[in-house]
Amino acid sequence: MYLLNRKQRHAVNYTWMIISLLLVAFLPFLLFLGLYIKSVLLLDDYSLVDLIFSRTWKPSSGQFGFYPFIVGSVWVTLVAMLITAPVCLLTAIYVTQYTRKYFLRIMHPAIDILAGIPSVVYGLWGILVIVPFISQYLGPWMGVKTMGYSILAASFVLSIMIIPFVLNILIEIFRSIPMELKEAALSLGATQWQTIKHVLIKKALPGIIAAFGFGLARAFGETMAVLMVVGNVVRLPKSVFDPGYTLPALIANNYGEMMSIPKYDSALMFAALLLLAVSLFFNLVMHFFIVRYNKF
Amino acid sequence: MDSQTKIEIRDLNVFAGKTQILRNINIDIPKNKITVILGPSGCGKTTLLKCLNRLTDLYPELKVSGQIMIDGSNILVAKEDIYKLRQQMGLLSQRPYPLPMTIYNNIAYALKLRGIKNRRETHKLVMHYLQQANLWEEIRTRLREPASRLSIGQQQRLCLARGLAVNPEIILADEPTSALDPISSQFIEETFLKLKNDYTIVLVTHVLRQAKRIADNVVFMYLGDVIEQGSVEEVFGNPKMEKTKLYLGGTFN
Predict the structure, then answer these.
(1) What are phi and psi of B62, to 5 degrees?
(2) Burial level of A208, CB count in 10 A (0-12/13-18/19+)?
(3) Of A35, B43, B184, B245, which residue is 20 to 30 A from B159 by alpha carbon distance?
(4) Closest-CA residue in chain A for B99?
């Protein structure tokens, strides 16, 4: 026998579901609110435009310009996506359309292992391999003088970190396209490549965009691996071989230190708020594209 | 009475690994007739159909041997131009799979693959094939909508129109009405009866009544074997094999 009758049990379960839902729905809002309250001190004294577009970062003399960090973050993320997107898309198409099934069975564990490696390990690997590679080989080869710690190094490391995630999603998306759709296109006399180009990619487009958006959000927020190789120099990077500084690295490097400087903690909170806002913006843009292409 | 043979299947064997899916299949499919391949689920009907337009190539685990002669040339030979071959046949599958495009472009894409790019001609032909598939009147104002917004029955007729748009000689239909409501099914059947003057139709089904209604020729298959074949009068009126009698009597299991 149950303690409660069916109707009561339903009510209890229903209540729990509503509570969990509210929790999930309000968390981002609370996060935003908390960060906003904490950074109000800074926002009272400076205008938002000033904070975002001013280039000088001298907290000790009260100058808080976030522009170099925003630019650094955007560069690192975009270059990482430029590497990630084509690699993932082509790999996913190849393993789902051209190879036999056992190949995927071998690849899946390999991808999962890559996805499970802690980011600090990637950072270390970046310092040991990518940074010297850029300073000793790639830089001289391109005729650029660089110390290796650079936007490019961070982008490389980042892309290697997010490739497994994006790739896994893309493979699932391509595998979920029914075989019969492919057969339908082929039966019209399309070649395999035409089928992929005109039908499969089009069918998968909302998913592809979502996967890239997911990768973008991860890359933008990634902290550890990036701060280990990006150079952490507050300067506007002129090329991908220049060092830079990212928003997450700013927070991670400085929070808890130098807190005696007035408004410093407020500034770091504002950096977190910016990070959140940009992530939200990415999400919205992604959502717009998904809705737009999802009609087929 | 024109009884020219369009497709001759000789000693066709298909293996998936060690399991044999089709065993020594010999079938003659006459031109401009509806040939129904009848049999319970899992007897290899669909595989047989996929052999005809070499969609079996997609499944590397399938080993196909034997001959399939279409107008006298063996299509199982590797060097056969597979894209031309597939355009000789329109395929209609169990469930409709419209391409992820607009209704109009579903047909226009098939035309493009056939080499027709002229806009005026495309326009004319899209209309022509939609009319042939009995769909034009219902959707003439909705041509720019995504094909996925059509009802299942309409989608299936769109797929038929798309199949016709490659200008085939043969229509392969794999239980095309199994997912449809009776009225849409009837639409498809009527369309087939109209089309058989110009096309050779191979229809796979497990629905006896459908076979009776529209077949000229019947091939009865069971577990990878052809049990009996002949004209609809012969097979339904006077079945020779025990298994056929049981299946037709509905006491088969």
Answers:
(1) -90, 130
(2) buried
(3) B43
(4) A199
> Does the interface predicted TM-score (ipTM) exceed 0.90?
no
Output phi, psi for B30, to 5 deg: -75, 150
Q: How many Cβ atoms are within 10 Å of A268's Cβ, its own excluded? A: 25
Digit-coded pLDDT (tens) for A186-211: 999 999 999 999 999 999 999 999 99
Name every residue in A having a CB less than 8 A away from some CB of B: 100, 178-191, 194, 198-199, 202-203, 295-296
On chain B, the residues whose CB falls within 8 A of the CB of A199 are: 99-100
Residues of chain A found within 8 Å of residue B93, distances taken between Cβ atoms: 180, 183-184
Q: Helix or strand or coil: residue A104? A: helix
**Number of Cβ pairs < 8 A linking chain A and chain B:** 68
For CA atoms A233, A234, A239, A240, the dihedral sign is positive
Q: Which of A150, A155, A110 is nearest to A134 (CA)?
A: A150
Write phi, then psi, for B91 (nearest 5 degrees).
-110, 135
Q: What is the pLDDT of residues B98-149, one digit of tens each?
A: 999 999 999 999 999 999 889 999 999 999 999 988 899 999 899 999 999 9
